[in-house]
Design a protein that fits this description.
The protein is mainly alpha-helical. The protein has 9 helices and 4 strands. Strand 3 and strand 4 form a beta hairpin.
């Protein structure tokens, strides 16, 4: 099993991985240049550097633009929505006191893609019977997060978030995949949240470093983003301008050239 997993991981790196790495380097340079007043490079933070090097290496695994671009977009706008909710209700605050700080938003699509890769790796080791616990785990998290955000229940934004969490947990169809995403996001969340809270970059209302639920929240957000991706793909597939859309039972005909003659071929 371990040898098979290592072989699969090695096969996931190719020329497209180098292209993704180049895009990441440009993104990192752009963010640090635009928000240079936020970043302090006067002291070395090897923990911070290690996290981002690891995330970048993981992201370069199995690069596929057709999958990655929608995920990056959903991660970008989904992360912005989460940051807006958390900072507006003061569940957490950033040291810059922005609501939300836009310099943190580019980190969301990078983390989203890295968690997608961690989920793919987790699927290699996750037994199929483990999918039975997916819905209970997601719904238990929803209840836990509602309790964590209890001080903000007077805000309509929190009620909307609670409704979305319940919907995400109750509509799990690819349960093993959802559980793998939840596990991968939680693992990465442990490192990200510990770094951010221990350095005072952001502070939760509980003053914990960090609150445990914050790490699990990264896993749940990844599952929620996957729902957003599924909705996006379904909407595009059935869009009026998509002439290639077909009912599942229908077929279209095309032709192929055989020995210089055009022979009709049915493609389902």
């Amino acid at each position: 099993m371990a040898a098979k997993m290592l072989a699969t991981i090695r096969a996931g790196y190719n020329r497209r991985s180098l292209g993704a790495l180049a895009v990441l380097i440009v993104l990192y340079a752009l963010v640090t240049w635009v928000w240079q007043d936020v970043f302090d490079f006067s002291t070395s933070d090897w923990f911070f550097a290690s996290i981002w090097i690891a995330m970048s290496a993981i992201l370069c695994f199995r690069v596929d633009a057709t999958r990655d671009v929608p995920r990056a977009l959903v991660g970008l706008f989904g992360g912005l929505a989460i940051e807006a909710w958390g900072t507006a209700t003061e569940l957490w605050k950033y040291e810059t006191h922005e609501r939300p700080p836009f310099w943190i938003v580019p980190a969301w699509p990078v983390a989203t893609l890295a968690i997608d890769r961690l989920g793919q790796i987790a699927l290699l080791a996750l037994p199929r019977r483990a999918e039975r616990i997916t819905v209970p785990v997601l719904l238990c998290f929803s209840g836990w997060m509602t309790w964590f955000a209890r001080a903000t229940l007077s805000s309509p934004m929190t009620w909307l978030v609670c409704a979305v969490m319940i919907a995400v947990g109750a509509t799990s169809t690819k349960r093993r995949h959802d559980l793998a995403l939840f596990a991968g996001g939680t693992v990465l969340g442990v490192f990200l949240e510990y770094w951010g809270t221990s350095r005072g970059c952001w502070t939760y209302w509980t003053q914990e470093t960090p609150p445990i639920i914050a790490a699990f929240a990264h896993g749940f957000a990844s599952v929620a983003f996957q729902r957003g991706i599924d909705l996006m793909i379904a909407s595009l597939r059935h869009a009026p301008w998509n002439k290639s859309r077909l009912p599942p039972s229908s077929s279209r005909r095309r032709s192929r050239i055989v020995a210089g003659q055009r022979v009709p071929q049915t493609v389902r």
